[in-house]
Structure formats: structure tokens, C-alpha cells
């Protein structure tokens, strides 16, 4: 295979859009990143204009084309992955009928509770697409009536490139697999589902008439990936039975891969195609918690985090419950809130930093424990990617807390490499996705769990689980406290 052939990959995450060229041997060429912000207001409203993603994609593609015109002219295919649980409604012409509802939005919790009670489907919560679509149908009936397709963000970009509205059954599983007891709103929502193509399927060619530099690529095939988690797992080399994955970006995603279907309370169980099944899913808090911590501790936070593992733990244990924006997996509770437990006057800022890193790691262990029990086997390792994996201290803490080896990647572009593996396999350059994954991905450093920390973390994890149980009740009580009037819809 020629080393001069490239895939143009795009990874649309919660805090940035990345575009880059990847060669057939896994070499990463020029990349460009366009940052943006997704936030929720005090009433749980979180929306984004989808056109900002397309504008960012065009700008990033222009930057990559300028950086290496020859390589850009050797693009063999496109592949795009992106954040999920974000609803983009478009009309029959592909134009958004309203802003996209992001994964942070929790406005629908009361309506979701009503739907869950009426239908008996407990999984319908504030993060569920059915509840969000029902909310739009109730408050914006004219816009809802104009909607022709429900898309994920990656699908919207692919629609702009190809003119074809489609998605995959993994990204839209929560709606596509929904029990039909949710009628009558379910029937209307089901009609919004676009064609669902399996990952690695050829979507179609890039259409003519796009702005430069994309105009030069008219006719280039576009391959369907799946959500950013699925694609990054491929890019980390973790699409293997018995392997766990952890992707730490704006939100934290952890799961385990098996070769047979299994189920665990609070975890998402999805057939990931190619003979693999996953148990796990996204939380509401990931590496973004470090940005929040910096607002409390100031600009020295990064230094504190880097030095956490060099300092002994405080003799008085400090526990952090990391539910700053509610929680998805495994509690699915938008009212759940964060807390420090055990805080006293002797604790210093670096103790809070350690507690925050440990708190997210305990959340990881909760998910991993449930997945391992369901699969009746232990994960051989945790492949760790995303912004959080750049912190050696956090990698080691996760290894110690979860008591599993944590393996980082030799690169920071798991999503783009996953896109490349899909596209090269689709083009037939490799005989399978597994073969492409093996050839394109490389591991970095392995952080092994340290026996001297096992007893402490086992005891703290036990307290963590008991504290979460209490926090669920207390957070519900806080949510019932009267609020000022909500002036935003």
C-alpha cells in the first residue's frame, strides 16, 4: 500500500473539532483543531447552532490543506466521528430546524419522569432522546413538524458533505431499540430516524459544489463510523475481547468489550458489530473537572495535579463525589450533585486536587466492576485516551484505584486513527477492521497498579459507594428546594 495515500478524518468532540490526515501505516500528518464551548445554564438548557460545526470543519480542512497541499491531494476517503446523545433535527433539505440539544441538557427531567411512569420504561430520563423530542414537540410544535430527520453531530457533517441523511445503529441505539410502549410520541420520533448503516459502510461520495478545498475532493468516498467512543476505542487498539477502555474528554467514558451479549444495572449494553459487545457508557464528568478545579484553586492547579503522585496522601481521607452536572452511567440521575466528604482545616489545595482525581477514578471503578461482573471476567487492561490521559498522575491513580494496568496511546489522536482504520478497511486496504486496528495503532506507557495502595483504595471505594447512596437521596431533596423562576425555555 502506498504511503502517499491518506484518509481525512474528523473528530467532533465536546470541546473541539479536530481534522487531520492519516497515512496507511498510522502516520499522522497535518492536523488542525477548532475549539468551541458547550455549556448548560442553571436550568439545564444546553444548545449549539450546528452551523458552527460545519464552519469549524471548513476552517480546519483549509488549514490542513495549506499545511500539506500534496498530501491533501492524495486523500482516498473521508471518515467522521463525533459526540453522541446530542440531537440535531433537520428538514427535508438538510437545514437544521432549531439548535442542537447537547448531551449536557437536562431540561426534560420532569417530562422524562412522566413518560417513564406512563410507559413503564424506566430508562427514559432527562438524557434520553425520546424525552428531548417530546419536549420539543410540546414547546415548539411548528419546528418539530418541520423536522424530517434526527441526526448525531457527525451525521450532520456527513450530510453537509454528501447530501445524504444517515446514521448508524450504535449512535442512535437508545431510540432505535426503544420499546414501542412509548407511543404515541414514539411513532412520530421513529419516523425521524434516518437510514442506519453499519460502521465501516460506505455512505456515499463527497458532493460537487462545496467550497474549497473540499471542492477538489468531489467524488471521494465517505465511510460511516460510529460515535466518538466507538471510533476512539478502535484508534486506541481496544476493540478486543476482555479489554476495557477509558476516554477522558469533556465527559468520561468507560466500558469493557466482550464477545457475547451481557447486561448490567445502569450500564449501556450495545452490539458493537464485528462480533463485539460493549458494557459501559458516558458519565457527565471527565477531564473537564480539571478546568472546574482550576477555577477554585487558581493557575497553579496544573502543577498540583502533576505533583499529586509525588506527595503522600493526607492522613485524614478526603473523598470527592464527581457529579458536577448530574450523572449518566451508571446512575442516570440528572439531579445528582458533587460533594467533598471528610474536608477539614488541615487539608490543603493539593489534597483537593488528589481527591478530585481519585473521585473520577472511583466512578470509573464502579462502571468497570459492574461490567466485569456481567461478563464474568476481569479486564486485562484499560486503554486510556483523551485529554485526561496526558496526566501521568491521573493514569497512575486510575491504575491504583481500578487495580488494572492502564495503557496510554503513543499518540493523542485516537478518534482520527479510528476514522482511518474504518476508511482503510472500507477501501479494502486491510482485510478487516481488526487488521487495520492492529496495523495503525500503537500503545504508549503502561501504568501498573501498586500493591501498597490496594488496601487504602479498597476502603475508600467502599465509602464512595455508601456516600453515593446517601448523595442520591440528599440531591433529590436539594432539587426539591424552590428555585427562582426559569425565564428560559
Structural class from helices and strands? alpha/beta
Q: Could you tell me how far the N terminus lies from the C terminus, measured between alpha carbons in angstroms?
A: 54 Å
Overall CATH class of the largest domain: Alpha Beta
Strand arrangement within the widest β-sheet reads 15-16-14-13-19-20-21
According to CATH, the fold-level topology of the largest domain is Nucleotidyltransferase, domain 5
CATH superfamily of the largest domain: ATPase, nucleotide binding domain
Biggest sheet record: 7 strands, mixed
Rg, please?
A: 22 Å
Shape: globular
Mean pLDDT: 93
**Residue ranges: pLDDT <50 for 5 or more in a row?**
none
- Approximately how much beta-strand content do the residues carry? 15-25%
Helix content: 25-40%
Number of strands: 21
Structure description:
This protein is of the alpha/beta class and 489 residues long. The protein has two domains: 6-230, ATPase, nucleotide binding domain (Nucleotidyltransferase, domain 5), CATH 3.30.420; 237-479, ATPase, nucleotide binding domain (Nucleotidyltransferase, domain 5), CATH 3.30.420. It has 16 helices and 21 strands. The strands form six sheets. A seven-stranded mixed β-sheet has the order 15-16-14-13-19-20-21, sandwiched between helices. It has a six-stranded mixed β-sheet with strand order 3-2-1-5-12-11, with helices on both faces. Strand 19 (382-385), helix 13 (392-402) and strand 20 (406-409) form a beta-alpha-beta unit. Helix 9 (228-235) crosses helix 14 (414-427), helix 11 (301-307) packs across helix 12 (349-375) and helix 14 crosses helix 15. The longest helix has 27 residues, at 349-375.
